[in-house]
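Suppose a classmate hands you a notebook page containing two proteins, each written out with its sequence and a corresponding row of structure tokens. How would you begin to make sense of it? This section walks through that situation. The first entry is reproduced here exactly as it would appear on such a page.
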Amino acid sequence: MEKTYSSIIEWLADQRSEVWHAIASHWNWDNGIEPLEWIAAQPECDRGTAQDIFWVSTYGVDVLWHLGEDLDAMNDSDPYVQAMFELIGRNAYNSFYKNEKFIGRNDADAQATEMIGKAFSEGRIDWDLTPFLAVSEGEVFSPSMLTEKEREEVEFALNGGFPD
């Protein structure tokens, strides 16, 4: 039976964007992606947080490293991760993410940006994410942005707390 994270998502619904970013930046993807999907689907999700989720995702890494090769190889990626990649892409394209407090895990250097642009120009990806993936304003997230209680709760959530 697949584990669900409804209690973590319930908890996330009452948290600040700093807590969302802490969870997204440190989530163990082997534990499923439901909380990350929920965060990425919220209009209040910070653009840097969405970038972080994108770049940490297997699909995001595949985009970065397979762009110079056969992009069809990415079809072997987890369909749930692909769906989240597409969600973030559509949201970014439609300017869904209004807040930009944090810098995401912006590992895209000039070469990666050029490769991403090439994939878009070849029609391999349906939306123009280049500015979204390569540029982010804001500040680097620090755990000191959280209250002591928030740090404890984040640690609890990341360690498999909130049983359903």
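The notebook's second entry, a different protein, reads as follows.
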Amino acid sequence: MNTNQIAHIAGLVGEPARTAMLVALMDGRALTARELADAGHITAQTASRHLALLVEAGLLRLERQGRHRYHRLASADVARVLEGLMQLAVQQPAPAAPRRVVVGPRDAALRTARTCYDHIAGRLGVAITEHLLDEGAMAFDGDAGGHVTAQAAPVLQRLGLDGDASQGAAGSGKRPHCRPCLDWSERRMHVAGKLGAMICSHCLSQGWLLRRSDTRALEITPGGAVALRNWLGHARWGQVADH
């Protein structure tokens, strides 16, 4: 194990402006250097230097489209590390003289539903996960992995995903079929991996969830509320909506 490399990566993530830029990419989008500079409250020139270091270290991936250059998280592994750091951060004891934090509507929206890289987090993500577990559609294998079962097909079909969807979630590739991801606001698990990404993508494509600008929060549309309530059941849906 190269401890110097670990320290190097930790140092890159630990710089406040770089941390802010990395967190801004946690919703799975690709953003420009200008947008990331705004997220880090730094100049475009300073952001360019920071982004170059993050790309070089393999934390970000640079994508070019015509004259435009976009940055996104390099992999789901990077997102998982960041989510873990966020969970550790909220567990730290409060400072001796904490500033008063005003919790506004934006915070409430994040707690209801948000993106965690490419899957759903918040109360909605936890409710989906508990439904899949209760229906036997998947099972978690400890804290790091999981597997999709044969029961996944009929459960996902009731959400409007075809029968091949469960095979896609259990297909080949390095990414886990499904895995637990500790939700920093709910302190319970939501589902990540291929299955989590598939469900999130489906809900977005159906218009049940809408991305909100400048935030990871997801808006649940009226049609989405009906579809998800019918799938999850009234009692579990109440855990999402009745707050």
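A careful reader of the second entry would note: Confidence is low (pLDDT under 50) at residues 97-106.
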